[in-house]
């Protein structure tokens, strides 16, 4: 039985019959006023960069909200056949309509939302998302988030960090040839700062079965504040708490935020960002009737574990062990592990 399960996880045996006329997963990538960063993100999603998959396995739907700096048409012409591009003229300063539009025209069995087009991914993201969905028909697969740089970009920007420093770090690791070395130049994002083994507040690459996406009603369009407010955290919470969901976390993969002067990561003075964050939190409370709290799940960790991620495993483990030693009744370390091969978790 265990051997059969491993074959299903690794894709040697399909868990359900495959409809070859449609991709398995649809990535919805939202872009606004970040052409350089979005180009790297899209490059990281190509079959040439992603390992163990082909163009037939997935599609990438790029939805760009028009700005003064759109993606270069010459670059768009270089994208593989499983990519499509859609330019929208939005009336509200939020990505919610673009996401729902992308999901509405997508064809995959699973809808994977990447709300921020500035987030590059590691080379095993697509393969392991597909593995995760093979585990359970209600699997919600999420990828942890990181910021390029040694500290959160909204803090680093006050010490002079910017696009040029970001670009230099990416060049220093030989990217895209060394995809997993992104871990070497990054830190946990704020939403993932608790580490792997305590509740996180969002994922910037979250893959949801289409029937659950429909039951959730997609993205809630009431989140109309600039940048979408807490809409991505709201999606993460609702998806992870959906009845019967198996939450699968890709421990050895990541999304990496490139600096681009974003709404909450350094585009404005701290005082303006703090005022915006208050407005964002207030809107969430108005919509949901309570303050945001991270969903508590019992995740399954899946995928290979590259050497570069070990320091993040250590950093995630230390506070959990300290809490356990102080309080034996703590449930902070309540998690499951699925092995998909020798030396992998």
Description:
By secondary structure, this protein is α/β, with parallel strands linked by helices. It has a single domain (23-337), classed as Alpha-Beta Complex (Spore Coat Polysaccharide Biosynthesis Protein SpsA, Chain A), CATH 3.90.550.10. It has 11 helices and 13 strands. It has helices at residues 2-9, 35-43, 73-76, 96-105, 125-135, 153-156, 163-172, 210-216, 231-240, 270-288, 310-326; strands at 25-31, 58-65, 83-88, 110-114, 119-121, 139-142, 145-148, 186-188, 206-209, 246-250, 255-257, 300-302, 336-337. The protein has a 9-stranded mixed β-sheet with strand order 3-2-1-4-9-6-10-12-13, sandwiched between helices. A 4-stranded mixed β-sheet has the order 5-11-7-8. β12 (300-302), α11 and β13 form a beta-alpha-beta unit.
What keyword list fits this structure?
single chain; 345 residues; alpha/beta; Spore Coat Polysaccharide Biosynthesis Protein SpsA, Chain A; nine-stranded mixed sheet; 11 helices; 32% helix
Structure class:
alpha/beta
Relative helix content = 25-40%
- Report the C-alpha radius of gyration, rounded: 19 Å
CATH fold label: Spore Coat Polysaccharide Biosynthesis Protein SpsA, Chain A
The stretches of 5 or more residues where confidence is low (pLDDT under 50) are: 1-5, 328-345
InterPro entries: Glyco_trans_2-like, Nucleotide-diphossugar_trans
Region (Disordered): 321-345
Protein name: Glycosyltransferase 2-like domain-containing protein
Organism: Halioglobus japonicus
């Amino acid at each position: 039985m265990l051997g059969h399960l491993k074959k299903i996880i690794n894709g040697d045996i399909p868990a359900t019959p495959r409809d070859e006329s449609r991709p398995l997963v649809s990535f919805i990538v939202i872009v606004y006023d970040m052409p350089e960063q979005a180009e790297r993100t899209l490059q990281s999603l190509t079959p040439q960069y992603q390992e163990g998959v082909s163009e037939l396995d997935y599609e990438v739907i790029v939805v760009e909200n028009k700005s003064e700096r759109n993606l270069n048409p010459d670059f768009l012409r270089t994208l593989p056949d499983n990519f499509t591009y859609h330019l929208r003229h939005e009336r509200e300063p939020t990505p919610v309509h673009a996401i729902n539009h992308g999901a509405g025209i997508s064809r995959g069995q699973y809808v994977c939302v990447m709300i921020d087009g500035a987030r590059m991914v590691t080379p095993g993201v697509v393969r392991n998302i597909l593995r995760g969905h093979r585990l359970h028909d209600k699997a919600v697969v999420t990828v942890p988030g990181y910021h390029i740089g040694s500290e959160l970009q909204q803090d680093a920007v006050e010490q002079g960090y910017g696009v040029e420093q970001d670009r230099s770090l990416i060049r220093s690791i030989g990217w895209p040839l060394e995809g997993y070395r992104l871990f070497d130049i990054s830190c946990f994002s704020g939403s993932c700062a608790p580490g792997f083994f305590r509740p996180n507040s969002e994922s910037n690459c979250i893959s949801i079965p289409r029937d659950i996406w429909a039951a959730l009603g997609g993205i809630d369009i009431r989140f109309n504040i600039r940048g979408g407010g807490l809409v991505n955290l709201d999606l993460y919470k609702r998806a992870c708490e959906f009845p019967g969901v198996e939450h699968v976390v890709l421990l050895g993969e990541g999304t990496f935020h490139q600096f681009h002067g974003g709404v909450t990561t350094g585009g404005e003075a701290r005082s303006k960002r703090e005022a915006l964050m208050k407005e964002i939190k207030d809107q969430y409370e108005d919509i949901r009737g309570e303050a945001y709290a991270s969903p508590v799940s019992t995740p399954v960790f899946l995928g290979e574990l590259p050497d570069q991620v070990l320091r993040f495993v250590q950093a995630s483990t230390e506070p959990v062990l300290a809490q356990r030693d102080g309080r034996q009744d703590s449930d902070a370390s309540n998690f499951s592990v699925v092995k998909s091969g020798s030396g992998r978790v």
